């Protein structure tokens, strides 16, 4: 139990970098892949119960397209596309920075699958950075649900930085991990599995 | 002269975001575009004396290619290719984070122009972030050449952060500007012309 004696500032938090990905609702899956088709498991992802699919789609915006964007299954109630701002610039779109599921007023996006092209009215977001904690991890580190902290990354490297506005989320489904997108990871030169620390 | 009374921490510093770009040496230009060809001015860039060319090249790595990469003229003594880490991932390369001109041990890169493909043995880097100051600006802000500072960006926005390891460069050719690449800009949601501040 020595770990419990560590303060929140001394506990190494593993990084999980999210590449661009798509969650489809059942109706949008059926439209893009055909009714009766089923997504096939490609590999696990860190979120318990979810997995990356063999199936990919193409995203289309006014300025460009991005191919081979991975689907995450099982399907969700609402289609949600999470990209980095670099991707958004390539597509020519300006999605807002949002927490998962907070899609009101998010950007429209065209999604192309083997059976056709779908026009999604809203659902394109840039994910806001956050830390996942299990309840025991949060308790040991003195973290409350919804707390905002600062996180130091890339310590000792050429691109060390401190992220502000990092949201803490606590759930039995979670284990300790700091979630950022590829732009945020690249700005600090960190990758999945590296460790970061909460900053005083 | 009221501005001179502002401390380094109170002076707004404009951001300049560098997109990926290529500086060629004369021999490499001749190889890619043909002897006797001359680069044509597309638009000015912030660095005095330099300009972006109409001419572009394609970068090729083991995993992918990036087209329409802008050339900067006039030519340099040594070919230097500056990309973001997101670009490096797309190419399948791992260039180091370096200051301009510091190319020893940097990555190899293939450059394709209208006359052929060039294999550059070293010259691919990710630019290290820095601030340019004129001598009077540096004096007013109490900045010494080579000083390392921290810079706060995206203040009040969803992606506010503090960059560590920011190098201060002073020259008569410079005017006050904080130079970062697209990954770093996107991680903070800042763009060219936004203002940042030196952090205590």
Structural notes for this entry:
The structure is a homodimer of 200-residue chains. The longest helix of chain A is centred in the first third of the chain and has 8 residues, at 26-33. In chain A, a hairpin with a 4-residue loop joins strand 4 (51-60) and strand 5 (65-73). Chain A has 4 helices and 14 strands. The first copy, chain A, is mainly β. Chain A has 2 domains: 2-16 and 129-198, Barwin-like endoglucanases (Beta Barrel); 19-127, no CATH class. In chain A, the strands form 2 sheets. In chain A, strands 1-13-10-12-11-14 form a 6-stranded mixed barrel. Chain A has a 6-stranded mixed barrel with strand order 2-5-4-8-9-6. The interface between A and B is medium-sized, with 22 and 22 residues. Strand 12 (161-170) of chain A pairs antiparallel with strand 12 of chain B, so a sheet runs across the interface.
Biggest interface found: A-B, 22 and 22 residues
Question: Which bin fits the share of residues in helices of chain A?
Answer: 10-25%
Number of strands of chain A: 14
Q: Give the helices and strands of chain A as they follow along the chain.
A: EEHEEEEHEEEEHEEEHE
Low-confidence region ranges of chain A: none
In terms of DSSP E residues, the strand content of chain A is 35-45%
Distance between the termini of chain A: 23 Å
Mean pLDDT of chain A: 94
Tell me the overall shape of chain A. Answer: globular
* Rg of chain A, Cα atoms, Å: 18 Å
Number of domains of chain A: 2
Q: How many helices of chain A does DSSP assign?
A: 4
């Amino acid at each position: 139990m020595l770990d419990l004696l560590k303060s929140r500032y001394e506990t190494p938090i593993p990084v999980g970098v999210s590449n661009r990905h798509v969650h489809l609702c059942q109706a949008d899956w059926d439209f893009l892949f055909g009714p009766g088709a089923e997504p096939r498991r490609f590999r696990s992802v860190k979120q318990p119960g979810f997995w990356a699919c063999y199936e990919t789609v193409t995203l289309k915006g006014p300025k460009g397209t991005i191919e081979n964007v991975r689907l995450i299954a099982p399907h969700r109630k609402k289609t949600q596309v999470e990209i980095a701002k670099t991707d958004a610039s390539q597509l020519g779109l300006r999605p807002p920075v949002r927490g998962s599921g907070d899609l009101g007023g998010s950007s429209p996006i065209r999604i192309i699958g083997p059976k056709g092209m779908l026009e999604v009215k809203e659902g394109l977001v840039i994910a806001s950075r956050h830390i996942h904690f299990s309840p025991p991890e949060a308790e040991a580190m003195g973290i409350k649900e919804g707390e905002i902290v600062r996180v130091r990354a890339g310590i000792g490297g050429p691109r060390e930085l401190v992220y502000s506005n990092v949201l803490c989320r606590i759930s039995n489904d979670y284990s300790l991990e700091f979630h950022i997108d590829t732009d945020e990871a690249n700005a600090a030169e960190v990758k999945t599995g590296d460790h970061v620390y909460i900053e005083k």
